[in-house]
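User: Sequence for Holliday junction branch migration complex subunit RuvA below. Tokens please.
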Amino acid sequence: MYEYFNGKLVKITPTYIVVDVAKIGYLINVANPYAWSNLMNTEIEIFVHQVIREDAHTLFGFSDAAEKALFLRLISVSGIGPKSALAIIAAADNVGLITAIDNNDIKYLMKFPGVGKKTAMQMVLDLAGKFDAEGNAEKSLLNATSVGNIALDEAIEALQALGYRATELKKVEKKLQAEKDLSSEDYIKAALKLMMK
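Assistant: Structure tokens for Holliday junction branch migration complex subunit RuvA:
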């Protein structure tokens, strides 16, 4: 999986940009292609996320790691696909979006393209309280993870990477905190056992 590209911005269209990396042109879907126009024909760094489907391999691009992290949080919500997530990022000031999520502002969230009441409610359920004061999406999904328990933090990140949702992990997180001196692997095994019950 790609993390970021360093290459020359060679093309801008209404929906994507093309970045030349070592003489290979990568088509990258971005939230607002024209925001990149002042960088045309220059070397850029762009953070990317690849979505692989049966009929397509698609790259989505972001100006920084925080924007990418926000995108990943959004697509973790049931009902929000990659294109909808890009549209949400493009349409909003991200701090406003995060404030709406944290304040359960369903009406505000329903203003985004493709977000109905059910999806807006799911956004609040899955994402409220998961961002830090600066609006960054890189804060741990589980705020309550015990301070200093690196093994548990690593286990939670690994479970998130496997596709387990925050709502599922919250149910077992307190029980995991009660277990002391386990390795990351042991925490993962314990969490899986709890979630299978």
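The first helix runs from residue 65 to 75.
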